[in-house]
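Re: your question about DUF523 domain-containing protein

S., sorry for the slow reply, the queue was backed up all week. Below is exactly what I fed in.
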Amino acid sequence: MDKILISACLIGLRTRYDGKIINKLCTDNFQKRCLIPVCPEQLGGLSTPREPADILFLDGSKRAVSRNSKIDLTENFLKGARETLKICKKLNINKAILKSKSPSCGEEGFTFDLLKKNNIRCIIKS
Ligand code: SF4
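Result:
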C-alpha cells in the first residue's frame, strides 16, 4: 500500500500552535493509501499550544522566530524537519501532503524545504 506523509493537523489531530482542531482534508480519497501523520514542530520539541512563529530572513539566513517573545526557534524547526525526513526514509515514503502557510510545512517552511531537497514530492493543501 502507498504510504503518504501528511501534516497531522490536516486530518484533525490537535497539533496546531493554537491547539485548535481543523479537519481540512477529506480522507475518503485516501482509503487505499496509508497516511502517516506527522507534526514537525512537535517533533522539534515544541509544545501544543505554543506561540505562533514566523519566518524571518536575518543576515541572509532563514530563521524561525516566535511572534511575540521573539525567541529564535530555528533549531527546533530544523530538528523537526530532520526528524520528518528520517521518518520518510525509514518508511520509504516519497510523497507528502503538507499544510500551507506554516513556517514548517508551508511553501517557505523548513520541513517543506528539506523534503523537497531530498526528492520527496510535496503537495501543499490550504
Ligand atoms: Fe504541525 Fe505542520 Fe500542522 Fe504546523 S502545519 S501543526 S507544524 S503538522
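The beta strands are 2-7, 33-38, 53-58, 61-66, 95-99, 121-125. The pocket of iron/sulfur cluster is lined by residues 7-9, 15-16, 39-41, 99, 102, 104-105 (CB under 6 Å).

Happy to talk it through on Thursday.
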